[in-house]
């Protein structure tokens, strides 16, 4: 009995020993395997997870589409090579660190401290801007030259029509799954926040960008065998390019001009006289699309914000009066310097004396136009203003475009107005409205387009900022054809011609005589609106017109805002310089 018990105990101990040996072997194998290929709960190796973490931490290019000008010149998207620090276990020796510190213009000790602290790759700006165009110099282990896609050019600009991008999780949550990739858009993806970036956002969203990883283990120890890995989405169609109507060279020159001539607030708009395409649109003050300060308002595009027009609105009154037959170009008026009603007086002390309608526009006589305003009805003035593109938005628009959604190219555009709906219109309101005061508001874009309308015998066009969207391979994704607003002209060709003749007389014998020495023969109309801001009297100065007179190529509007009352008419000087730049560009072309 005792022998049998001992035998059973021996068998149990033997089995237990066998299981212990198997368990020990298994644990040993797992330990060896973990050292060679440590697994994670997600089924990836720790090495793979480390790489994945780096991929999530550094993006070279979001894959967002870009803008080009009418000739294909890039407006967004420039490769910038930057030295990028990766988390490593040991920093390089002192000499290598010193050389790197010189490249990034940073004290070695500061660089060393920064490098020790990073938990994800960190790109550094270079001291030499040439090195950002191409890699210059060798870098120590743990640092790589990487090509980042810089969306906007360095510094501030007056291209607020372009807009800017920002992270907007609220917008991302409302987006449909990417049609091409079939994946949800990442919540941190930047989307358009204003300008064309916003209005064209549906086309610009990419299907995947370019990311980089660096081989380090979970303790940030360098793994040279893995090295740098770049992952990109290879697609023949994306990202797209959006071709604008802008001429980059002219836009840049006019931005410089606005600085040189010290235009602190205002706008410059240049339209192609043939069909109203936007060639250049400058807004002051400038903004920095890479560093937006929403509170300062510089990102707002003043070229599409409505402002009191002053005497440029006299073109509308002249058109309404001629169309309705309440006057004729040769009718004589008498200006004594005072209208004797509603507190209206002429800018010229003592008045102009006997003066014709044509001379009245050339000299911008308030008495002539106050009288015309009272001859007209509210409906006649409002109808004519609308026919000339005022009091409503005019930028390129479609109720339904590629998928049923509406599309309005020009962001922030205001409609402006002629009469305030809450005001009872009487003779005084009509007279003051005729001078472009009271409740009248016009945008610089509308003012320039008014000139285009007259050049086309009263046919109203819808200004474009974008002509087409191109796939990556150059094929066309979408087109935005030039549009007319309304099937036919409301202002007759005869009236349009008469107004153009009057605008020419503004230059030859009126308030624009200083422009007779311009490179082109010009025609135009000045305007000054009086406003009160913070209890201070200020002027909004305008000049609109076209050139050359013999074969019009461009229509231009200049607005200089918040000038001291009685100050020199800066807008007229800017208009002349703008036209000279356009003439020079045409000669070179």
Task: Please tag this protein with its features.
589 residues; alpha+beta; Penicillin-binding protein 2a (Domain 2); four-stranded mixed sheet; 32% helix; elongated; peptidoglycan L,D-transpeptidase activity; Penicillin-binding protein 4B; Beta-lactam/transpept-like
Folded structure, characterized:
This protein has 16 helices and 23 strands. The radius of gyration is 34 Å and the shape is elongated. The relative contact order is 0.11. It has 2 domains: 49-160 and 196-244, Penicillin-binding protein 2a (Domain 2), CATH 3.90.1310; 248-288 and 300-588, Beta-lactamase (3-Layer(aba) Sandwich). It is of the alpha+beta class and 589 residues long. A 5-stranded antiparallel sheet has the order 12-11-23-22-21. Strands 2-10-18-19 form a 4-stranded mixed sheet, with no helix packed on it. The termini are far apart. Helix content is 32%, strand content 20%. It has helices spanning 2-36, 46-57, 94-103, 108-117, 169-174, 195-199, 201-204, 248-260, 314-324, 357-362, 366-375, 378-387, 427-434, 444-455, 493-509, 570-588; strands at 59-61, 66-68, 78-85, 122-123, 143-150, 164-167, 190-194, 210-214, 228-232, 241-244, 266-272, 278-284, 332-335, 353-356, 397-398, 407-408, 461-462, 466-470, 476-479, 483-484, 523-533, 536-547, 554-564. Mean pLDDT is 86; it is low at 34-56 and 177-181. Strand 21 and strand 22 form a beta hairpin.
């Amino acid at each position: 009995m005792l022998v049998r018990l001992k035998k059973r105990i021996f068998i149990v101990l033997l089995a237990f020993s066998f299981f212990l040996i198997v368990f020990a072997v298994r644990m040993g194998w797992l330990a060896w395997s973990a050292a060679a290929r440590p697994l994670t709960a997600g089924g990836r190796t720790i090495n793979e997870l480390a790489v994945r973490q780096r991929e999530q931490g550094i993006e070279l290019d979001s894959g967002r589409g870009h803008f080009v000008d009418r000739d294909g010149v890039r407006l967004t998207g420039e490769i910038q090579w930057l030295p990028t620090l990766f988390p490593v276990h040991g920093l390089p020796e002192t000499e290598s660190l010193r050389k790197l510190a010189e490249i990034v213009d940073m004290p070695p000790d500061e660089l060393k401290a920064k490098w020790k602290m990073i938990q994800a790759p960190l790109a550094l700006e270079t001291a030499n801007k040439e090195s950002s165009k191409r890699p210059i110099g060798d870098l120590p282990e743990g640092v790589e030259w990487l090509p980042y896609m810089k969306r906007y050019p360095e510094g501030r600009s007056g291209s607020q029509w372009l807009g800017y991008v920002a992270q907007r999780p609220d917008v991302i949550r409302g987006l449909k799954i990417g049609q091409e990739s079939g994946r949800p858009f990442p919540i941190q993806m930047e989307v358009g926040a204003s300008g064309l970036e916003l209005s064209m956002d549906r086309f610009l969203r990419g299907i995947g960008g370019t990311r980089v990883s660096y081989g380090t283990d979970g303790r940030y120890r360098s793994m040279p065998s893995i090295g740098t890995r770049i992952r990109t989405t290879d697609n023949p169609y994306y990202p797209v390019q959006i071709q604008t109507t802008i001429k980059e060279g002219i836009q840049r020159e006019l931005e410089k001009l606005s600085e040189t001539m010290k235009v602190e607030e205002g706008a410059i708009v240049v339209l192609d006289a043939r069909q109203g395409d936007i060639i250049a649109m400058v807004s002051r003050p400038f903004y920095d699309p890479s560093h937006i300060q929403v509170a300062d308002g510089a990102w707002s595009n003043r070229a599409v914000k409505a402002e009191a027009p002053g005497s440029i609105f006299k073109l509308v009154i002249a058109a309404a009066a001629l169309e309705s037959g309440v006057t004729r170009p040769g009718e004589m008026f008498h200006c004594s310097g005072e209208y004797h009603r509603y507190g209206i007086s002429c800018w010229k002390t003592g008045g102009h004396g006997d003066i014709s309608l044509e001379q009245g526009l050339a000299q911008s006589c308030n008495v002539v136009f106050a009288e015309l305003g009272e001859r007209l009805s509210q409906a006649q003035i409002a109808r004519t203003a609308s026919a000339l593109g005022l009091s409503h938005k005019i930028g390129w628009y479609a109720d339904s475009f590629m998928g049923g959604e509406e599309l309005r190219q020009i962001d922030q555009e205001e409609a402006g107005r002629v009469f305030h709906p809450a005001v009872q219109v009487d003779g005084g309101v009509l007279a003051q409205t005729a001078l472009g005061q009271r409740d009248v508001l016009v945008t610089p874009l509308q003012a320039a387009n008014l000139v285009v309308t007259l050049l086309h015998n009263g046919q109203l066009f819808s200004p474009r900022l974008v002509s087409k969207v191109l796939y990556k391979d150059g094929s066309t994704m979408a087109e935005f054809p030039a549009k007319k607003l309304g099937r036919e002209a409301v202002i007759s060709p005869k009236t349009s011609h008469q107004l153009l003749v009057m605008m020419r007389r503004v230059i030859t014998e009126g308030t624009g005589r200083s422009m007779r020495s311009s490179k082109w023969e010009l025609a135009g109309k000045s305007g000054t609106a009086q406003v009160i801001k913070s209890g201070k009297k200020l002027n909004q100065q305008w000049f609109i017109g076209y050139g050359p007179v013999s074969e019009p190529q461009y229509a231009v509007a200049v607005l200089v805002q918040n000038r001291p009352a009685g100050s020199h008419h800066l807008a007229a000087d800017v208009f002349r310089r703008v036209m000279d730049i356009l003439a020079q560009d045409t000669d070179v072309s």
